[in-house]
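Regression test case RT-17, inverse folding.

Input:
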């Protein structure tokens, strides 16, 4: 006799957890917590050292595929000295997050921040931020756009 074992589904648990974290900790604390989770994930699942952006993109997509977390395209904006990270198909935790459907986006900030800074030539004085102006916030987003750039100095 053949038996089939159903894979556990954590979506209901994650949705209830997201609401509780948001209600009890607030948005800023939640976002920092999720960034730390992303950094931790990146430490456990690290890409090899890559000498080109194209190679890094291939390696990151292989890792994301293992997780079932969509895919990424990387673009160097040399004039702005910024790496534009366009992540497609991030899993959603229902409508959780601001804007709705983006609850896991801070995880990507931590994940990419650690992945990118582990690469040759990466700079340590960096900031990773979501580019909300570039995202279509009028609908449940399919893209998360992240910018990785040097910290701007106020010194003259």
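Golden output:
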């Amino acid at each position: 006799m053949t038996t089939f074992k159903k894979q556990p589904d954590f979506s209901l648990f994650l949705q209830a957890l997201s609401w509780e974290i948001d209600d009890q900790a607030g948005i800023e604390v939640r976002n920092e917590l999720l960034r730390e989770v992303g950094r931790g994930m990146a430490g456990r699942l690290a890409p090899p050292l890559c000498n080109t952006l194209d190679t890094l993109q291939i390696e990151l997509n292989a890792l994301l595929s293992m997780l079932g977390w969509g895919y990424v395209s990387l673009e160097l904006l040399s004039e702005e000295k910024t790496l534009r990270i366009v992540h497609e198909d991030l899993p959603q935790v229902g409508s959780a997050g601001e804007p709705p459907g983006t609850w896991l986006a801070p995880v990507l900030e931590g994940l990419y921040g650690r992945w990118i800074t582990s690469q040759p030539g990466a700079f340590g004085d960096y900031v990773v931020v979501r580019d909300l102006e570039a995202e279509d916030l009028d609908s449940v987003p399919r893209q998360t756009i992240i910018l990785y750039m040097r910290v701007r100095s106020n010194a003259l």
